[in-house]
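Late entry, written up from scratch paper. The run itself happened at the end of the previous shift, but nothing got recorded in the book at the time, so transcribing now.
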Amino acid sequence: MNVFLTALIVFFSSTVFSQNYQVTPEESSVHWHAEKVTGEHDGTVGVKLGEIWMKEGKLTGGIVVIDMESIVVTDLQGEWAEKLGRHLKSPDFFGSKEFPTSTLVINKAIHQGKERYKVEATLTIKNISKETKFIANVHESGNEVEATADLVIDRSEFNVRYGSGSFFDDLGDKTIYDDFTLKVTLKAVKTSE
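Output as recorded:
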């Protein structure tokens, strides 16, 4: 998603939603987990900016922009972590130089009781947008909101092909599974009434 479209969404939100909460990147986190035939890897990717939109104490929408150039590996150390991190940023995977950000836009939030929501959203990775659904928990307290969610993403839908059995045959034990998970925690502070 380009900067203009992001700005347009944020501007539109301020005219429609009664309470805007600006995401605090340094207090928010996105942890990723991926598996392959012979093992698994974990890491993080940074939050660049975002907003959570509430009305009468309930989630109504939001947007989060992820900094794809900040991908790091946390289950390895030193040279091995750096090598895998560079590979994930390369065109084999997320091509972060060409596609430096990914976005998640909440289109609909269905209240499930208490602080739980069934969320329908649009996820954009490598300029490819797909609809996704997940459960989120949103806690509003005073001027702050904390939102958490676990997402399961099929990388093949976003043309992330390296080691994928969806694109290549006979990979054997070099196969990397298409699904990976994101554990998202967003902390945000109220910016307007």
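The chain has one domain: 3-192.
(Scratch paper discarded after transcription.)
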